[in-house]
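A.,

Following up on our hallway conversation. Structure tokens first:
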């Protein structure tokens, strides 16, 4: 389906609660698609009327009304903390479940130590949180409402990934941003997540090489973590659908190209290093 505002193909469209139109993430809000019933939306906000909107593609509630916006200050609502806690457990479960399907070897022995995979699970969870919170902090610093929310299908796919030996998808939810913003602002908010993973990948790869001689077990885990962060950045930078890459590409193709090239290069280098170590 194409967005009724910009015409971009949108795999997971948002339906406007007021006019019933189908829009992409950038134009989902009434003020961003010149909603013919914008006055109704503005009246609801002024009166503090809470309206729950549950798009079929995401299956979670977005509340319009009086969003808490404190420019320059980061805050977490009780509901958001619950969603983050559940998402963290799901992601950590994927890291710990890797112990049952591992073919990763260190110093000639198969990795079966729970402690090693415990470290990997923690790094994986931190990487996920860093990506999502980068979106949130960037948006809230601009005075926008931004909170993490679980999604039904994302959480289910992540849960299946915990027990599946092949399927490994880390997408339990996403940061929802509300407020009037331009293409540039949306692009910068979207870029914050992959950029954080790129920085993590560089730092972890450097630490891995520093630990190569005196801590081979740590070297292997850090290499794997560097590869994971590089892949997370590459995946999220793909310019399609609801991914960060689509919004960055729509804002500035040069910035998208540089970010994607950096993430791809890091992923390739880390993958070659891991393959050489196994």
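Then the amino acids I'd put at each of the 278 positions:
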């Amino acid at each position: 389906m194409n967005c009724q505002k910009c015409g971009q193909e949108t795999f997971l469209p948002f339906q406007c609660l007021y006019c019933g139109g189908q829009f992409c993430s950038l134009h989902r809000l009434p003020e961003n698609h010149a909603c013919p019933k914008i006055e109704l939306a503005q009246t609801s906000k002024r009166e503090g009327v809470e309206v729950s909107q549950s798009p079929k593609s995401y299956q979670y509630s977005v509340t319009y009304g009086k969003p808490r916006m404190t420019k320059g200050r980061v805050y977490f609502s009780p509901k958001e903390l619950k969603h983050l806690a559940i998402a963290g457990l799901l992601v950590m479960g994927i890291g710990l479940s890797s112990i049952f399907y591992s073919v990763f070897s260190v110093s000639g022995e198969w990795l079966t130590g729970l402690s090693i995979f415990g470290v990997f699970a923690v790094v994986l969870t931190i990487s996920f949180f860093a990506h999502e919170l980068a979106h949130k902090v960037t948006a809230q610093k601009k005075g926008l409402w931004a909170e993490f929310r679980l999604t039904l299908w994302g959480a289910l796919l992540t849960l299946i990934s915990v027990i599946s030996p092949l399927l490994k998808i880390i997408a339990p939810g996403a940061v929802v941003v509300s407020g009037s913003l331009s293409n540039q602002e949306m692009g910068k908010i979207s870029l914050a997540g992959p950029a954080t993973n790129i920085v993590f990948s560089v730092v972890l790869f450097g630490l891995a090489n520093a630990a190569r001689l005196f801590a081979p077990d740590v070297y292997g885990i850090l290499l794997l973590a560097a590869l994971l962060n590089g892949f997370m950045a590459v995946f999220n930078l793909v310019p399609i659908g609801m991914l960060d890459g689509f919004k960055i590409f729509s804002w500035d193709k040069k910035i998208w190209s540089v970010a994607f090239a950096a993430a791809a290069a890091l992923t390739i280098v880390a993958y070659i290093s891991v393959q050489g170590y196994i």
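DSSP finds eight helices and eight strands in the chain. Curious whether your intuition agrees with the design.

B.
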